[in-house]
Design goal:
Elements lengths: L4 H7 L14 H7 L3 H27 L25 E5 L2 E5 L3 H16 L34 E3 L15 H12 L5 E3 L11 E4 L5
Antiparallel strand pairs: 1-2, 3-5, 4-5
This protein binds zinc ion.
Zinc ion binds next to strand 3.
Length: 210
C-alpha cells in the first residue's frame, strides 16, 4: 500500500529543485565578479532546467521506456477508478468489503461467500482482507493502476497467501478454486494463475471488453 518512490516524486517534482541548485562554491566566484544579478538568473534558469530533467527522469523510471503511461481514470483491467464513497459495502464471515456497484459486487460477494464456506475462514490471519484501496501503480510494469482502485478485486487471507508465494493452498483447494472461478465464465480472474508474480490471495474482475 502507498505510492511508489517515482510516483511520489512525480507528485511533487519541483521539491527536487532544492537539491539540484548550482553548487555553493559558484556563489563566491560570482560575487567576486560583481555579478549577483547573473548569479540569481543562473540559479533560476538551472533550477527550472534541472527540475524539468528530474521530472523526465522520474517519468522514465516510473513508466519504463516512456512509451506507456498510467491512465489515471481506469485500472489495469479497464474498469474505472472510483472513490471510496462510490463503493458498495458488504460483509462475509464478519469481514467488511468495499467494491464497485454492479458485476464487481455481485461476483466478488458470491465468490467470497463460497470461499469462506468451502476453502477457509477469513480469520486465518489478522486484518488481512483487502478490497477497494486508493489507486496505486503496481508491479511489474508500474505503468498501470491496481484493480483495487476500481473496487474490482479482493485479497483473502493476504498474510497466509502473500503475493509472490506459490503453493499456499493445498492441491484440493487449488482445484476447487479453479472450478469455482470457471463458473463465472471468464469474468473472474485468480492471481494464483499468474506466472510472473503469483498473487494467490488476489481475485479480480476480468478486463473489460473493448
Ligand atoms: Zn490484491
Amino acid at each position: 500500500m502507498g505510492l511508489t518512490g517515482p510516483a511520489l516524486m512525480l507528485r511533487n517534482p519541483c521539491r527536487l529543485r532544492a537539491l539540484l541548485r548550482v553548487p555553493v562554491a559558484v556563489t563566491p566566484a560570482l560575487w567576486l565578479m560583481g555579478r549577483q544579478d547573473r548569479k540569481m538568473n543562473i540559479h533560476s534558469t538551472i533550477g527550472v532546467r534541472m527540475c524539468a530533467l528530474a521530472v523526465a527522469a522520474a517519468a522514465a523510471v516510473a513508466f519504463g521506456s516512456g512509451s506507456a503511461h498510467a491512465d489515471p481514470t481506469s485500472t489495469m483491467n479497464g474498469h474505472p477508478v472510483i472513490a471510496f464513497e462510490q463503493t458498495v459495502q458488504w460483509q462475509v464471515d464478519g469481514t467488511t468489503f468495499w467494491t464497485a456497484p454492479g458485476d464487481a459486487t455481485t461476483i466478488l460477494q458470491d465468490f467470497v461467500s463460497w470461499f469462506a464456506t468451502n476453502i477457509e475462514s477469513l480469520h486465518e490471519g489478522g486484518f488481512d482482507e483487502w478490497s477497494w484501496a486508493e489507486p496505486q501503480l503496481v508491479a511489474p510494469s508500474y505503468a498501470a493502476l491496481s484493480n483495487h482502485g476500481s473496487g474490482t478485486s479482493v485479497d483473502l487471507n493476504a498474510q497466509k497467501h502473500a503475493q509472490g508465494l506459490q503453493g499456499t493452498f493445498t492441491a484440493a483447494q487449488t482445484a476447487a478454486i479453479r472450478a469455482k472461478v470457471a463458473e463465472y465464465s471468464g469474468r473472474l480472474v485468480w492471481g494464483g494463475e499468474w506466472t510472473d508474480i503469483p498473487d494467490e490471495t488476489h481475485f479480480e474482475l476480468a478486463p473489460l471488453l473493448k
